[in-house]
Protein: Nickel import system ATP-binding protein NikD
Amino acid sequence: MSILAINDLKVQFPTPEGLVKAVNSVDLELEEGERLGMIGETGSGKTVLGLAVVRLLSGAEVEGNIEYRGKKLLLLDEAEMRKLRGREISVIFQSPNSLNPVLKVGDQIAESIRLVGCSNRQDAKKKAVQAMEAVGMPDAELWADRYPHQFSGGMKERAMIALGLACDPRLIIADEPTKGLDANIKAQVVELIRDVTTDKSLLFITHDLSAAAQICDRIAVMYCGEIVEVGRTEEIFANPLHPYTEGLFRSLPIMGMKAIRGASPSLIDIPSGCRFHPRCDRPCENCAKAHPPLVEAESSPGHLMRCFQHDRG
Structure:
């Protein structure tokens, strides 16, 4: 059963230079208890899609349908949406610097708990300490009484995860939680996220392919505002079907760091036809003229791709 269903989602931003088409007609489902990774280059639309779910986009034109457990989120008023944020749907933001530098970390978590109505003022601090303990924070009661500048990068990330988990949400949207961490700390954070989401649904937004491989059940690949491939994690990594996905994997250090030629196109002036065709190593004449649909591979049920050229048998 789907906990989150996105249909024909479009997110656009008016600018003096033109309309930025950040998300283009995206369809996506997340099952109850599933961990889904969203991968792609910076600017592909991953973060915008995640923020659209919780309606935290300023100045955006949003169309389509987003359903959380049958509730049409884009039709809810702000008061109804506030009841869901934090309590049922939570966001782990990508920058630990999102913590307020002038407030103690425990107070920030406690304030979040109070704001979403999970607890009264008396119990909120106790629950904040419990949330910090749940993410493996040593001496949580002591660290709850300290300021963000006293935390290491890894501890800040643990605090951000504690903030996201404080009210025991059913759906977590994690936006680049391993960004900027060194290898050892990143490994700890990946293991932590995997452990604390075993009984939850997770939308894991990242450009860190190795982290997505370790955490996620399925992978969705975004390019230029749309999904170009979706499949089980092991299938995506063992047999990528879209040329863009193949290019992402070839760019990994263990694969020789072979960069995809060219650069991502402007989201104001999107290429006609297949959006990846100007950078593709094997485009055909049809690729520049027609926009390929997202279809199921004949040889791999449930594995979807958006490409004219790949063998579907």
Remarks:
- The two ends are 29 Å apart (CA to CA).
